[in-house]
Amino acid sequence: MLWLALFAPKLPFDLLARQGHPPSRPAALLGEEKGIPRLAEVNAAAARRGLRPGQSLAHAYAVVPELILLRKDEAAERAAFERLGSCALGFSSEVRLAERAVLLEVGGSLRLFGGLEALGMRLREALEPLAVTLREGVAPTAEAALFLARAGGGRILSREELKASLAPLRLSAAPLPSELIATLAALGLDRLGRLFRLPPASLSERFGPALLAWLESLLGERPPAWPRFTPPERFQAELELPQPAGSVPELRFALARLVHELEACLSPRRLGVAKLRLTLKGRRSFRDATIALRSPSAEAKRLLAAAEAALERIELSEPVLALALESGSLREIPPLQQTLWGPASEGHREKLAELIERLEQRLGEAALYRLGLAEDHRPERAFRRLPAWPEPQPSKAALPLSPRPAWFLPSPRPVRREDYELLSGPERIESGWWDGEEHRRDYYRARDRQGRECWLFQAAEGWFLQGFFR
Q1: What is the tens place of the pLDDT at every residue in 325-378?
Q2: What is the secondary structure of 77-106 as a DSSP string?
Q3: How far apart are CA 398 and CA 172, in angstroms?
Q4: d(CA 254, CA 417)
Q5: What is the CATH number of the domain that holds 182?
Q6: Residues 242, 210: one domain?
Q7: DSSP string for 372-403
Q8: Confidence band (pLDDT; 50, 70, 90) for 389?
Q9: Which terminal residue of the chain has fewer beta carbons within 10 Å of its beta carbon, N or C?
Q10: H or E stretch including 199?
Q11: Are residues 114 and 179 located together in one domain of the fold?
Protein backbone atom coordinates (compact mmCIF):
# COMPACT_ATOMS: atom_id res chain seq x y z
CA MET A 1 0.00 0.00 0.00
CA LEU A 2 1.03 3.59 -0.58
CA TRP A 3 -0.70 6.54 1.05
CA LEU A 4 -0.83 10.16 -0.01
CA ALA A 5 -1.71 12.69 2.69
CA LEU A 6 -2.84 16.24 1.93
CA PHE A 7 -2.55 18.49 4.98
CA ALA A 8 -4.11 21.99 5.16
CA PRO A 9 -1.87 24.04 7.49
CA LYS A 10 -3.73 27.35 6.96
CA LEU A 11 -7.32 26.19 6.56
CA PRO A 12 -9.07 29.03 8.52
CA PHE A 13 -7.31 31.62 6.38
CA ASP A 14 -8.05 29.71 3.17
CA LEU A 15 -11.74 29.80 4.09
CA LEU A 16 -11.45 33.54 4.73
CA ALA A 17 -9.88 34.07 1.30
CA ARG A 18 -12.67 31.94 -0.21
CA GLN A 19 -15.13 34.61 0.93
CA GLY A 20 -13.26 37.22 -1.06
CA HIS A 21 -11.03 38.73 1.64
CA PRO A 22 -7.56 39.45 0.20
CA PRO A 23 -4.69 37.47 1.80
CA SER A 24 -2.86 40.77 2.31
CA ARG A 25 -5.19 41.63 5.21
CA PRO A 26 -3.83 40.51 8.62
CA ALA A 27 -5.94 37.77 10.19
CA ALA A 28 -5.65 35.49 13.23
CA LEU A 29 -7.49 32.52 14.69
CA LEU A 30 -8.74 33.01 18.23
CA GLY A 31 -7.60 30.47 20.82
CA GLU A 32 -7.49 30.20 24.59
CA GLU A 33 -4.75 29.51 27.12
CA LYS A 34 -5.70 28.97 30.79
CA GLY A 35 -8.98 30.78 30.19
CA ILE A 36 -7.32 33.81 28.59
CA PRO A 37 -8.11 34.55 24.91
CA ARG A 38 -4.97 34.46 22.82
CA LEU A 39 -3.96 34.12 19.19
CA ALA A 40 -3.83 30.47 18.13
CA GLU A 41 -2.70 30.96 14.51
CA VAL A 42 -1.83 33.94 12.33
CA ASN A 43 -1.61 34.35 8.57
CA ALA A 44 1.45 35.56 6.70
CA ALA A 45 0.24 39.17 6.59
CA ALA A 46 -0.22 39.25 10.38
CA ALA A 47 3.18 37.62 10.93
CA ARG A 48 4.85 40.31 8.84
CA ARG A 49 3.27 42.90 11.16
CA GLY A 50 4.82 41.23 14.20
CA LEU A 51 1.98 39.04 15.47
CA ARG A 52 2.72 35.54 16.78
CA PRO A 53 0.63 32.66 18.20
CA GLY A 54 0.21 32.96 21.96
CA GLN A 55 -0.04 36.77 22.05
CA SER A 56 -2.97 38.33 23.92
CA LEU A 57 -5.79 40.06 22.07
CA ALA A 58 -4.96 43.40 23.68
CA HIS A 59 -1.40 43.20 22.39
CA ALA A 60 -2.56 42.05 18.94
CA TYR A 61 -5.04 44.91 18.49
CA ALA A 62 -2.52 47.42 19.79
CA VAL A 63 -0.05 46.33 17.09
CA VAL A 64 -2.60 45.72 14.26
CA PRO A 65 -5.88 47.60 14.87
CA GLU A 66 -7.41 46.34 11.58
CA LEU A 67 -6.78 42.66 12.47
CA ILE A 68 -9.49 40.23 11.31
CA LEU A 69 -10.19 37.83 14.17
CA LEU A 70 -11.55 34.38 13.29
CA ARG A 71 -13.21 31.80 15.48
CA LYS A 72 -12.90 28.12 14.69
CA ASP A 73 -15.80 27.18 12.41
CA GLU A 74 -16.03 23.40 12.60
CA ALA A 75 -19.00 23.19 10.20
CA ALA A 76 -17.20 25.21 7.51
CA GLU A 77 -13.99 23.19 7.94
CA ARG A 78 -15.90 19.91 7.76
CA ALA A 79 -17.69 21.07 4.59
CA ALA A 80 -14.36 22.09 3.03
CA PHE A 81 -12.86 18.67 3.68
CA GLU A 82 -15.95 16.91 2.40
CA ARG A 83 -15.41 18.77 -0.87
CA LEU A 84 -11.73 17.75 -0.87
CA GLY A 85 -12.65 14.14 -0.09
CA SER A 86 -15.29 14.05 -2.84
CA CYS A 87 -12.73 15.22 -5.37
CA ALA A 88 -10.11 12.76 -4.09
CA LEU A 89 -12.48 9.83 -4.70
CA GLY A 90 -11.85 10.33 -8.40
CA PHE A 91 -8.24 9.21 -7.80
CA SER A 92 -8.57 6.47 -5.18
CA SER A 93 -11.22 4.03 -4.03
CA GLU A 94 -10.10 4.47 -0.41
CA VAL A 95 -10.21 7.97 1.05
CA ARG A 96 -10.14 8.93 4.73
CA LEU A 97 -10.47 12.30 6.46
CA ALA A 98 -8.24 13.20 9.41
CA GLU A 99 -7.78 16.45 11.33
CA ARG A 100 -7.16 19.05 8.58
CA ALA A 101 -6.05 16.32 6.19
CA VAL A 102 -7.25 14.03 3.42
CA LEU A 103 -5.60 10.62 3.02
CA LEU A 104 -5.73 8.56 -0.19
CA GLU A 105 -4.50 5.03 -0.74
CA VAL A 106 -2.89 5.56 -4.15
CA GLY A 107 -0.92 2.32 -4.55
CA GLY A 108 -3.72 0.79 -6.62
CA SER A 109 -4.10 3.90 -8.79
CA LEU A 110 -0.51 4.44 -9.92
CA ARG A 111 -0.77 2.28 -13.02
CA LEU A 112 -4.06 3.88 -14.05
CA PHE A 113 -2.67 7.43 -13.86
CA GLY A 114 0.82 6.67 -15.11
CA GLY A 115 2.82 6.83 -11.88
CA LEU A 116 2.98 8.90 -8.71
CA GLU A 117 4.15 12.11 -10.38
CA ALA A 118 1.35 12.07 -12.95
CA LEU A 119 -1.26 11.20 -10.33
CA GLY A 120 -0.09 14.02 -8.07
CA MET A 121 -0.17 16.54 -10.90
CA ARG A 122 -3.71 15.51 -11.95
CA LEU A 123 -4.88 15.60 -8.34
CA ARG A 124 -3.47 19.08 -7.73
CA GLU A 125 -5.16 20.36 -10.88
CA ALA A 126 -8.49 18.88 -9.80
CA LEU A 127 -8.22 20.37 -6.29
CA GLU A 128 -7.16 23.84 -7.44
CA PRO A 129 -10.71 25.31 -7.66
CA LEU A 130 -11.25 24.46 -3.97
CA ALA A 131 -8.55 27.02 -3.09
CA VAL A 132 -7.06 25.20 -0.08
CA THR A 133 -3.31 25.35 0.60
CA LEU A 134 -2.06 21.76 0.91
CA ARG A 135 1.18 20.02 1.86
CA GLU A 136 1.84 16.48 0.64
CA GLY A 137 3.27 13.45 2.35
CA VAL A 138 3.70 9.98 0.83
CA ALA A 139 4.44 6.83 2.83
CA PRO A 140 3.49 3.12 3.05
CA THR A 141 1.25 3.86 6.05
CA ALA A 142 -1.48 6.48 6.41
CA GLU A 143 -0.14 7.79 9.74
CA ALA A 144 3.38 8.16 8.37
CA ALA A 145 2.12 9.99 5.28
CA LEU A 146 0.16 12.37 7.50
CA PHE A 147 3.17 12.93 9.77
CA LEU A 148 5.36 13.79 6.78
CA ALA A 149 2.75 16.23 5.45
CA ARG A 150 2.43 17.90 8.86
CA ALA A 151 6.23 18.10 9.16
CA GLY A 152 6.53 20.00 5.88
CA GLY A 153 6.29 17.28 3.22
CA GLY A 154 8.30 14.28 2.14
CA ARG A 155 8.17 10.84 0.54
CA ILE A 156 8.99 7.35 1.75
CA LEU A 157 8.16 4.82 -0.94
CA SER A 158 8.87 1.43 0.65
CA ARG A 159 8.08 -0.16 3.98
CA GLU A 160 11.68 -1.40 4.32
CA GLU A 161 13.02 2.14 4.58
CA LEU A 162 10.12 3.50 6.64
CA LYS A 163 11.66 3.27 10.11
CA ALA A 164 15.08 4.51 9.06
CA SER A 165 13.63 7.45 7.12
CA LEU A 166 11.39 8.53 10.00
CA ALA A 167 14.11 8.24 12.67
CA PRO A 168 15.77 11.68 12.14
CA LEU A 169 12.47 13.61 12.13
CA ARG A 170 11.48 15.74 15.08
CA LEU A 171 8.44 14.82 17.15
CA SER A 172 6.99 18.36 17.10
CA ALA A 173 4.75 17.58 14.10
CA ALA A 174 3.14 14.56 15.77
CA PRO A 175 -0.63 14.74 16.48
CA LEU A 176 0.01 14.35 20.22
CA PRO A 177 -0.81 16.67 23.15
CA SER A 178 1.62 19.61 23.31
CA GLU A 179 2.31 18.84 26.99
CA LEU A 180 3.42 15.29 26.11
CA ILE A 181 5.68 16.53 23.29
CA ALA A 182 7.25 19.07 25.65
CA THR A 183 7.83 16.38 28.32
CA LEU A 184 9.48 14.07 25.78
CA ALA A 185 11.66 16.88 24.46
CA ALA A 186 12.81 17.74 28.01
CA LEU A 187 13.96 14.13 28.36
CA GLY A 188 15.89 14.27 25.10
CA LEU A 189 13.25 12.27 23.20
CA ASP A 190 12.64 14.94 20.57
CA ARG A 191 13.26 12.69 17.54
CA LEU A 192 11.45 9.57 16.44
CA GLY A 193 14.57 7.43 16.27
CA ARG A 194 15.16 7.84 20.01
CA LEU A 195 11.61 6.66 20.73
CA PHE A 196 12.02 3.66 18.41
CA ARG A 197 14.98 2.44 20.52
CA LEU A 198 12.97 2.34 23.76
CA PRO A 199 10.98 -0.75 24.83
CA PRO A 200 7.29 -0.35 23.91
CA ALA A 201 6.12 -1.52 27.35
CA SER A 202 8.09 1.18 29.17
CA LEU A 203 6.81 3.87 26.79
CA SER A 204 3.21 2.91 27.47
CA GLU A 205 3.76 2.63 31.22
CA ARG A 206 5.51 5.98 31.56
CA PHE A 207 3.80 8.18 28.95
CA GLY A 208 0.41 6.53 28.47
CA PRO A 209 -1.06 4.24 25.79
CA ALA A 210 -1.73 7.08 23.30
CA LEU A 211 1.95 7.48 22.44
CA LEU A 212 2.47 3.76 21.86
CA ALA A 213 -0.72 3.50 19.78
CA TRP A 214 0.46 6.36 17.57
CA LEU A 215 3.90 4.81 17.06
CA GLU A 216 2.32 1.47 16.11
CA SER A 217 0.05 3.22 13.58
CA LEU A 218 3.05 5.12 12.24
CA LEU A 219 4.88 1.86 11.49
CA GLY A 220 1.80 0.05 10.14
CA GLU A 221 1.29 -2.24 13.12
CA ARG A 222 -2.25 -0.88 13.54
CA PRO A 223 -4.85 -0.14 10.84
CA PRO A 224 -5.72 3.52 10.11
CA ALA A 225 -7.83 5.04 12.86
CA TRP A 226 -10.10 7.03 10.54
CA PRO A 227 -13.18 5.52 8.86
CA ARG A 228 -13.54 5.44 5.09
CA PHE A 229 -15.02 8.61 3.69
CA THR A 230 -18.52 8.38 2.21
CA PRO A 231 -19.32 11.40 0.02
CA PRO A 232 -22.57 13.33 0.52
CA GLU A 233 -25.48 12.34 -1.71
CA ARG A 234 -25.86 15.94 -2.90
CA PHE A 235 -23.53 18.86 -3.40
CA GLN A 236 -24.09 21.71 -0.95
CA ALA A 237 -21.95 24.81 -0.53
CA GLU A 238 -22.51 28.27 0.91
CA LEU A 239 -20.40 31.37 0.57
CA GLU A 240 -20.63 34.45 2.78
CA LEU A 241 -19.85 37.65 0.91
CA PRO A 242 -17.12 40.00 2.19
CA GLN A 243 -19.64 42.84 1.94
CA PRO A 244 -23.38 43.03 1.11
CA ALA A 245 -24.12 42.85 -2.62
CA GLY A 246 -26.90 45.02 -4.01
CA SER A 247 -26.78 44.03 -7.68
CA VAL A 248 -26.46 40.93 -9.83
CA PRO A 249 -22.96 41.75 -11.22
CA GLU A 250 -21.61 41.85 -7.66
CA LEU A 251 -22.73 38.24 -7.15
CA ARG A 252 -21.03 36.75 -10.20
CA PHE A 253 -17.65 36.23 -8.49
CA ALA A 254 -19.22 34.23 -5.64
CA LEU A 255 -21.42 32.28 -8.05
CA ALA A 256 -18.43 31.34 -10.23
CA ARG A 257 -16.51 30.10 -7.18
CA LEU A 258 -19.40 27.86 -6.08
CA VAL A 259 -19.86 26.43 -9.58
CA HIS A 260 -16.14 25.65 -9.95
CA GLU A 261 -16.20 23.94 -6.56
CA LEU A 262 -19.11 21.80 -7.76
CA GLU A 263 -17.15 20.83 -10.87
CA ALA A 264 -14.11 19.92 -8.75
CA CYS A 265 -16.24 17.67 -6.50
CA LEU A 266 -18.13 15.85 -9.26
CA SER A 267 -16.03 15.83 -12.42
CA PRO A 268 -13.24 13.47 -11.20
CA ARG A 269 -15.92 10.92 -10.23
CA ARG A 270 -17.73 11.32 -13.58
CA LEU A 271 -20.88 12.57 -11.88
CA GLY A 272 -23.15 15.39 -12.98
CA VAL A 273 -26.30 17.23 -12.01
CA ALA A 274 -29.39 18.14 -13.99
CA LYS A 275 -30.97 20.45 -11.41
CA LEU A 276 -29.56 23.01 -8.98
CA ARG A 277 -31.11 25.39 -6.46
CA LEU A 278 -29.53 28.80 -6.04
CA THR A 279 -30.37 30.70 -2.83
CA LEU A 280 -29.65 34.36 -2.16
CA LYS A 281 -29.70 35.10 1.56
CA GLY A 282 -30.37 38.57 2.94
CA ARG A 283 -30.77 39.91 6.44
CA ARG A 284 -34.55 39.42 6.55
CA SER A 285 -35.39 37.10 3.66
CA PHE A 286 -34.01 34.85 0.96
CA ARG A 287 -34.75 34.21 -2.71
CA ASP A 288 -34.57 30.86 -4.53
CA ALA A 289 -34.04 30.09 -8.20
CA THR A 290 -34.07 26.69 -9.90
CA ILE A 291 -31.41 25.89 -12.49
CA ALA A 292 -32.44 23.06 -14.83
CA LEU A 293 -30.20 21.40 -17.40
CA ARG A 294 -31.45 19.25 -20.24
CA SER A 295 -28.88 16.54 -19.44
CA PRO A 296 -26.62 15.98 -16.41
CA SER A 297 -23.30 17.81 -16.48
CA ALA A 298 -20.46 18.89 -14.21
CA GLU A 299 -18.85 21.28 -16.71
CA ALA A 300 -18.35 24.63 -14.99
CA LYS A 301 -18.80 26.68 -18.17
CA ARG A 302 -22.18 25.12 -18.89
CA LEU A 303 -23.37 25.27 -15.29
CA LEU A 304 -22.24 28.86 -14.88
CA ALA A 305 -24.11 30.00 -17.99
CA ALA A 306 -27.33 28.42 -16.69
CA ALA A 307 -26.77 29.81 -13.18
CA GLU A 308 -26.10 33.34 -14.44
CA ALA A 309 -29.28 33.23 -16.53
CA ALA A 310 -31.23 32.21 -13.41
CA LEU A 311 -29.54 34.97 -11.42
CA GLU A 312 -30.61 37.59 -13.96
CA ARG A 313 -34.27 36.65 -13.37
CA ILE A 314 -34.10 37.33 -9.62
CA GLU A 315 -35.21 40.72 -8.35
CA LEU A 316 -33.20 41.80 -5.31
CA SER A 317 -35.37 43.30 -2.58
CA GLU A 318 -32.47 43.78 -0.16
CA PRO A 319 -28.66 43.38 -0.16
CA VAL A 320 -27.39 39.79 -0.37
CA LEU A 321 -25.18 38.56 2.47
CA ALA A 322 -24.57 34.95 1.36
CA LEU A 323 -24.99 32.70 -1.64
CA ALA A 324 -25.82 28.98 -1.46
CA LEU A 325 -25.84 26.30 -4.14
CA GLU A 326 -27.48 22.90 -3.70
CA SER A 327 -27.70 20.13 -6.28
CA GLY A 328 -30.38 17.63 -6.98
CA SER A 329 -29.51 13.96 -7.10
CA LEU A 330 -26.11 13.13 -8.60
CA ARG A 331 -26.14 11.14 -11.84
CA GLU A 332 -23.39 9.19 -13.54
CA ILE A 333 -21.99 10.58 -16.79
CA PRO A 334 -20.83 7.80 -19.13
CA PRO A 335 -17.23 8.21 -20.32
CA LEU A 336 -16.53 9.30 -23.87
CA GLN A 337 -15.69 6.47 -26.23
CA GLN A 338 -11.96 6.21 -26.92
CA THR A 339 -10.62 5.95 -30.47
CA LEU A 340 -7.17 5.23 -31.88
CA TRP A 341 -6.65 9.01 -32.20
CA GLY A 342 -7.80 9.99 -28.69
CA PRO A 343 -11.16 10.67 -27.07
CA ALA A 344 -14.12 10.83 -29.40
CA SER A 345 -16.01 14.08 -29.68
CA GLU A 346 -19.01 14.67 -27.44
CA GLY A 347 -22.13 12.84 -28.57
CA HIS A 348 -24.96 14.34 -30.57
CA ARG A 349 -27.39 14.28 -27.66
CA GLU A 350 -25.04 16.24 -25.37
CA LYS A 351 -24.39 18.90 -27.99
CA LEU A 352 -28.08 19.20 -28.75
CA ALA A 353 -28.97 19.51 -25.06
CA GLU A 354 -26.38 22.26 -24.56
CA LEU A 355 -27.61 24.16 -27.62
CA ILE A 356 -31.22 24.00 -26.39
CA GLU A 357 -30.17 25.26 -22.95
CA ARG A 358 -28.34 28.25 -24.44
CA LEU A 359 -31.28 29.16 -26.69
CA GLU A 360 -33.75 28.86 -23.82
CA GLN A 361 -31.58 31.03 -21.59
CA ARG A 362 -31.55 33.75 -24.25
CA LEU A 363 -35.08 33.45 -25.66
CA GLY A 364 -37.06 31.90 -22.80
CA GLU A 365 -38.28 28.33 -22.37
CA ALA A 366 -41.59 29.00 -24.17
CA ALA A 367 -39.80 30.10 -27.37
CA LEU A 368 -38.40 26.63 -28.09
CA TYR A 369 -40.49 23.58 -28.92
CA ARG A 370 -40.72 20.57 -31.22
CA LEU A 371 -43.50 19.66 -33.62
CA GLY A 372 -45.13 16.26 -33.36
CA LEU A 373 -48.00 14.46 -35.03
CA ALA A 374 -51.52 14.54 -33.56
CA GLU A 375 -54.24 11.99 -34.20
CA ASP A 376 -56.43 14.24 -36.33
CA HIS A 377 -57.00 14.30 -40.10
CA ARG A 378 -57.70 18.06 -40.25
CA PRO A 379 -54.44 19.77 -41.40
CA GLU A 380 -54.77 22.59 -38.83
CA ARG A 381 -54.95 20.04 -36.03
CA ALA A 382 -52.59 17.35 -37.31
CA PHE A 383 -49.58 18.77 -35.44
CA ARG A 384 -48.93 19.61 -31.80
CA ARG A 385 -46.23 21.37 -29.78
CA LEU A 386 -43.85 19.23 -27.75
CA PRO A 387 -41.11 20.21 -25.24
CA ALA A 388 -37.75 20.89 -26.83
CA TRP A 389 -36.12 18.34 -24.50
CA PRO A 390 -36.08 15.46 -23.77
CA GLU A 391 -36.60 13.90 -27.13
CA PRO A 392 -40.24 12.76 -27.33
CA GLN A 393 -41.27 9.18 -27.78
CA PRO A 394 -42.30 8.25 -31.32
CA SER A 395 -45.89 9.29 -31.98
CA LYS A 396 -48.53 6.61 -32.48
CA ALA A 397 -50.42 8.86 -34.92
CA ALA A 398 -50.46 7.58 -38.48
CA LEU A 399 -48.78 9.61 -41.20
CA PRO A 400 -51.10 10.97 -43.93
CA LEU A 401 -51.19 9.00 -47.13
CA SER A 402 -50.50 12.06 -49.32
CA PRO A 403 -47.67 14.60 -48.92
CA ARG A 404 -48.23 17.70 -46.83
CA PRO A 405 -46.65 21.13 -47.47
CA ALA A 406 -43.76 22.25 -45.27
CA TRP A 407 -45.14 25.80 -45.07
CA PHE A 408 -48.68 26.20 -43.76
CA LEU A 409 -50.44 29.55 -43.85
CA PRO A 410 -51.78 30.78 -40.48
CA SER A 411 -55.28 30.43 -41.93
CA PRO A 412 -56.62 29.40 -45.38
CA ARG A 413 -56.63 32.27 -47.90
CA PRO A 414 -59.42 32.61 -50.53
CA VAL A 415 -58.10 32.36 -54.13
CA ARG A 416 -59.39 32.18 -57.72
CA ARG A 417 -59.32 28.74 -59.32
CA GLU A 418 -58.22 30.09 -62.74
CA ASP A 419 -54.90 31.38 -61.25
CA TYR A 420 -53.67 27.82 -60.56
CA GLU A 421 -52.81 24.70 -62.58
CA LEU A 422 -53.97 21.53 -60.81
CA LEU A 423 -51.24 18.88 -60.72
CA SER A 424 -52.80 16.07 -58.67
CA GLY A 425 -55.83 15.33 -56.51
CA PRO A 426 -58.39 15.45 -55.18
CA GLU A 427 -57.81 14.09 -51.67
CA ARG A 428 -61.04 14.18 -49.65
CA ILE A 429 -60.72 15.18 -45.96
CA GLU A 430 -63.99 14.99 -44.09
CA SER A 431 -63.65 15.14 -40.30
CA GLY A 432 -64.48 17.06 -37.09
CA TRP A 433 -68.23 16.50 -36.89
CA TRP A 434 -67.87 15.58 -33.18
CA ASP A 435 -66.43 18.93 -31.95
CA GLY A 436 -68.36 21.47 -34.06
CA GLU A 437 -65.49 22.24 -36.48
CA GLU A 438 -66.44 19.95 -39.32
CA HIS A 439 -64.24 20.01 -42.43
CA ARG A 440 -65.46 18.74 -45.79
CA ARG A 441 -62.77 19.57 -48.32
CA ASP A 442 -61.17 18.31 -51.54
CA TYR A 443 -57.39 19.01 -51.58
CA TYR A 444 -55.27 19.48 -54.73
CA ARG A 445 -51.59 19.91 -55.44
CA ALA A 446 -51.29 22.91 -57.79
CA ARG A 447 -48.91 25.43 -59.37
CA ASP A 448 -49.45 29.19 -59.30
CA ARG A 449 -48.42 31.75 -61.94
CA GLN A 450 -45.00 32.23 -60.23
CA GLY A 451 -44.26 28.49 -60.52
CA ARG A 452 -44.68 27.72 -56.80
CA GLU A 453 -46.21 24.38 -55.83
CA CYS A 454 -49.22 24.99 -53.60
CA TRP A 455 -51.83 23.10 -51.65
CA LEU A 456 -55.39 24.16 -52.50
CA PHE A 457 -58.73 22.87 -51.34
CA GLN A 458 -62.26 23.29 -52.58
CA ALA A 459 -65.07 23.63 -50.05
CA ALA A 460 -68.68 24.77 -50.16
CA GLU A 461 -67.46 28.40 -49.74
CA GLY A 462 -65.06 28.24 -52.71
CA TRP A 463 -61.34 27.71 -53.34
CA PHE A 464 -58.66 28.33 -50.67
CA LEU A 465 -54.88 28.27 -50.47
CA GLN A 466 -53.61 26.23 -47.44
CA GLY A 467 -49.81 26.21 -47.90
CA PHE A 468 -46.73 25.83 -50.13
CA PHE A 469 -44.62 22.78 -50.92
CA ARG A 470 -41.70 24.81 -52.31
Answers
A1: 999 889 988 765 555 555 555 455 666 676 776 676 666 666 677 777 666 677
A2: HHHHHHHHHHHHTTT-S-EEEETTEEEEE-
A3: 81
A4: 67
A5: 3.30.70.270
A6: no
A7: EE-S-SSGGGSEEEEESSSPPPPP-SPPPSS-
A8: low
A9: C
A10: none
A11: yes
